[in-house]
Amino acid sequence: MAKIAPTNKNILVVAGDPSGDLHAASLIKALRAKDPELSVTAMGGVRMQEVSNRFLYNLVSVGAVGFAEPFKHFLLWFKLIKLLRRYMEEKRPACVIAVDFYGFNHQVLGLAAHRKIPAFYYISPQVWASRAGRAAKIAKLTREIFVIFPFEADLYKKVKGNATFVGHPLLDLMPEPQARQFPSEDGVLKIGILPGSRKSEISRHLPLFVKAFYRIKEQHPKARAYLFAVPEFPDENIVPALEAVEKYWSKDIEIVREKDYKERARLDFAFTCSGTATLENGLLGVPMAVAYRMSKFTYQIAKRVVKTPYISLVNILLKKPAVKELIQENATVDNLAQEAFAYINNPPRMQAARKELIGLRAMLGDRGAAERAANRILSYLS
Questions:
Q1: At 222, which CATH number?
Q2: pTM above 0.85?
Q3: Residue 320 region, left (φ>0) first, then alpha (ψ -120 to 50), else beta?
Q4: What's the rounded Cα separation, in Å, for the pair 118 and 256?
């Protein structure tokens, strides 16, 4: 293993979306626990800001995703890349760690490579889902790639990348699944609403999910909904969207922000935007309907570049339609409610689904992903 001779104990970590921010923060904590002398400079979100020595910018709050969004933020991204270039030249960090978010981070890796600063990728982008050519670019720009799905390591090795499967970091955050009775003795149905972590996703999915919940409430008056929100979006950014759908929403819908997933684990069913939330629900054993709406422009491009038959990580891992996926015009209130009733009104199916989803845990390695990645990175720097 090639060693690095750092001139300082400063490292740079960059992430650009809420899930990347979450897992980058865990990695930073693992690195600092093993080497308290490390000084971490970060660009990411609020979780990384809490555990870093120096924070450059809240990139997560920008929420640029898809094919068109990054162009809207071109000037900002240009300024941030310029900021990182100046930082690398002045501070010469011992290494750079990119976390997911390929559109921005491949430029960061290029800056590091040009200045001969070693770089690592923690949670590599899902190149297996679209644009597989990115794997070779990542392999060329990194010392080591830490992947979180077992099949990803072979993909990078085919393009001469140094990839290591470290397990999925969600396993360290998820509570152990508990046996649950359905229906519950009090008859209260707990319905999750997870519209996404970006403004565009929330605006497209929240009205659908709320209306679908009220369809459930028509048949099950005791039903309550729990809207799971990320720290980047305070209540004042969510409440107007809720009020536009249902004037008296506060009686039946509770906004939840949590770090331990305990409230999520108590759900009976969830309406979920495609993304990391689908895997989180799966590991907790929460049956769900997965929906995703995007702009027509983005959808037309996505149809041409996405290579997987499914959009939810649950179905991708299980290699079958274990949860219903409703995309674009199929993402309707009627379809969402119909799928919910297929579980709610069929307790044996509900229990069978829970068992199958919890089985995903066995496919994702062991706990300790961040710690294993931290050990590998520090072994280069020692």
A1: 3.40.50.2000
A2: yes
A3: beta
A4: 40
